[in-house]
Structure formats: C-alpha cells, structure tokens
Design brief:
By secondary structure, the chain is mostly helical. It has helices at 3-20, 31-34, 40-70.
C-alpha cells in the first residue's frame, strides 16, 4: 500500500475507534468480531467525522496548490 492509502486507513480507523468503538478495521474471519450492530446516531457521527476530515484535507491541498502557484 502507498503512503496516501495508509494515511487514509489510519484516519478511518481513528474515526471508527472514536465514534463506533471499533478497535480495528481488519477482518478476523469471526462473525462476532467482523459484524457490528450500531445505532443510526453513531453511524451518522462516524460519517460526519469522515466528511469533516475530507473537507479539512481538501482545503489543505487547495491551499498548498495555491501557494505553489503564487511562488
């Protein structure tokens, strides 16, 4: 895997852990660990966190590109 994908996975794992209480996104092959029942409220929180993270990353990329063009 490349660095960008690794960073994305780390961010998603962090969101899953903080909002859903999921320690890892790695499959174990055990249904009791690989499948979760979560509330709609918790799902909405996780999706909102991922969306917000995407906005922040996008803004940083645009700002960096703008600074590069201006220099």
């Amino acid at each position: 895997m490349n660095t960008v994908n690794d960073e994305r996975l780390e961010l998603l794992q962090s969101i899953a852990h903080e909002t859903l209480g999921i320690a890892s996104l790695q499959l174990t092959g055990k249904p009791t660990e690989d499948f979760r029942v979560i509330s709609i409220e918790n799902l909405a929180c996780a999706l909102e966190a991922a969306y917000d993270a995407g906005l922040l990353v996008g803004a940083r990329i645009i700002r960096a590109a703008s600074e590069t063009r201006c220099n």
